[in-house]
Design a protein that fits this description.
Radius of gyration of chain B: 21 Å
Shape of chain B: globular
Number of strands of chain A: 6
Oligomer: heterodimer
Number of strands of chain B: 11
Helix content of chain B: 25-40%
Number of domains of chain B: 1
Strand content of chain B: 15-25%
Largest interface: A-B, 48 and 48 residues
Distance between the termini of chain B: 36 Å
Order of helices and strands of chain A: HEHEEEEE
CATH topology of one domain in chain A: hypothetical protein PF0899 fold
Order of helices and strands of chain B: EEEEHEHEHEHEEHHEHEH
CATH architecture of chain B: 3-Layer(aba) Sandwich
CATH architecture of one domain in chain A: 2-Layer Sandwich
CATH topology of chain B: Rossmann fold
Distance between the termini of chain A: 39 Å
Structural class of chain A: alpha+beta
CATH class of one domain in chain A: Alpha Beta
Strand order of the largest sheet of chain A: 2-1-6
CATH class of chain B: Alpha Beta
Number of helices of chain A: 2
Largest sheet of chain A: 3 strands, mixed
Strand order of the largest sheet of chain B: 1-7-6-8-5-9-10-11
Helix content of chain A: 10-25%
């Protein structure tokens, strides 16, 4: 259950960049192969945001699916798990091209008066 | 971890570490240790929830969520490389035999090779005591409720442990096959320990860990005659997730396979010293 610590990181990074301004919305990208559960972030985020400029902020999460590209046969495959062997030709040449994202994309702030 | 204020200071304790100085955003500074009565100080801040006439503003961030840990890990990596210390991050589920393998390694190699150990557990200093009894320097990091080590904890542990130049630093992570895979500590390589009693399909069930690892130690091979498991299938499953894994089947009790693992350690130490 590392999502609480990760939510705390998100609050710290956004809070620092907000520089005292009230944060209304935060948009994240949490890939399906990132090892982080978007659902658990949704649960933990309000706890981590309590008492900070992010309290009450709307949380939006994009969850890009896992994708891999095989260097041997050129197959592009959707991946449910981070594997390294091509599901089509079995070569150990599958490179993950998407799904490992764990990024804060943007935030919306209410500028100070 | 402090859920209430989300401040960067964790509740992890490092054995042998003195109290520290803490500066608040409002400029007040005080020092404290991390005893049982440790608590954070909260200061009330007033914020206007709505300011008429001001439009909300969207700001692109593109910030890596684990960026701060990554930056600290790179700093640790530089500190270790500058001293020719080979740091390995040892990860496994609880009970896979990390500490037993370390004890054996210290007894076999300790006379010719300085070894220092960082022991990560949620609670107790039992493992650090076992390591010291085996003859190596050790520092215990208790993560409290934390389920993994982070780079900042290793940085604090290094200040206490002060591993000798050219030594081998074994970092025994909290027993957990999930979270430690996400947090770079600044190690030269990640080593996952997977015991033969854990089931052939464990690499498929916990792919993130096996994907993140550089080396796999298949431990407790002395038990194979008593089990209905196929060692080759375990290896195949691990390679399906991570075709680049270096795999060493070992037994800390019989000693089988340890020479190959020690050979890898010596090669990597020579590489760390030459870098």
């Amino acid at each position: 259950m590392h999502e609480l610590g990760i939510s705390r990181n998100i609050v710290a990074i956004v809070g620092e960049r907000a520089a005292g301004q009230k944060v209304l919305r935060v948009k994240l990208e949490v890939g399906r192969l990132s090892g982080v559960m978007a659902e658990a972030i949704r649960f933990c985020f309000p706890l981590a945001a309590q008492g900070t400029v992010l309290e009450g902020a709307l949380l939006e999460i994009d969850e890009p699916e896992g994708r891999g590209l095989c260097a041997a046969c050129g197959a592009e495959a959707a991946l449910a798990a981070p594997i390294g062997r091509c599901p089509r030709c079995a070569a150990p040449s599958l490179r993950i091209t998407s799904g490992e994202q764990l990024t804060i994309r943007e935030m919306e702030v209410q500028p100070c008066a | 971890m402090c859920v209430t204020c989300g401040c960067g200071e964790g509740a992890a304790t490092v054995s042998g570490e003195a109290g520290h100085v803490h500066t608040h955003a409002d400029g007040t500074t005080h020092s404290h240790d991390h005893g049982a009565d440790h608590h954070h100080h909260h200061h009330a801040h007033e914020h206007d929830l709505s300011v008429p006439g001001r439009d909300a503003q969207t700001i692109a961030l593109e910030a890596a969520v684990l960026g701060k840990n990554q930056a600290l890990a790179e700093r640790n990596r530089g500190w270790l490389a500058g001293r020719g210390v080979l740091a390995l991050n040892l990860m496994s589920s609880p009970g896979a035999g990390k500490t037993t393998l370390l004890e054996r390694c210290i007894r076999d190699l300790g006379a010719t090779l300085p070894i220092a150990v960082v022991e990560g557990d949620q609670a107790t200093s039992n493992d650090a005591e076992r390591i010291r009894a085996a003859g190596a320097k050790a520092v215990q990091v208790n993560t409290g409720t934390g389920c993994h080590l982070e780079a900042e904890m290793l940085e604090r542990a290094l200040k206490v442990l002060k591993p000798a130049p050219g030594s081998l630093l074994m970092i025994e992570n909290v027993g957990n096959l999930v979270c430690p895979a996400l947090f770079d500590l600044g190690e030269a390589a990640k080593v996952v320990i997977f015991s033969v009693t854990e089931g052939e399909d464990k690499p498929l069930k916990y792919p993130h860990m096996f994907r993140a690892a550089d080396v796999l130690l298949l431990s407790k091979t002395d038990l194979l005659p008593h089990l209905r498991v196929d060692l080759q299938r375990m290896i195949d499953h691990a390679l399906m997730v991570n075709p680049g894994l270096r795999i060493f089947p070992v037994s800390a009790y019989s000693g089988d396979g340890l020479d190959a693992w020690y050979g890898w350690l010596r090669d990597e130490l020579a590489r760390a010293a030459a870098a």
